[in-house]
Amino acid sequence: MTQAKNVLGEPLEVCCTSPMTGFYRDGVCSTGAGDFGAHVVCAEVTEEFLAFTKSRGNDLSTPVPAFDFPGLKPGDRWCLCASRWKEALDAGVVLPVVLSATHASAIEHVSLNELKQHAL
Q: Is the pLDDT of residue 59 over 70?
């Protein structure tokens, strides 16, 4: 199996382990056949984004103990769906991105230039 690459063509780095993120909850924004949302953009969430995504029906700030989800707070890093990151950007809600931890497949949904413009 080949090692996953980030948008810079380098090995994909860890996004965050506290809270544990990633489609596979391994801290990495890797993806696979079952990841229909493409959780591949490592972003640092903001209060503005948390309010935005909640208004779109995806509440990421409220803890869900049944799924061992602590709820996110501003400053947390999280593997976001690429389409949600792009939707927020188009709505004027900018989220900083960790390029080294953003999976190469993100550029299927958003341009590398857009990601670089908002890199940490």
A: yes
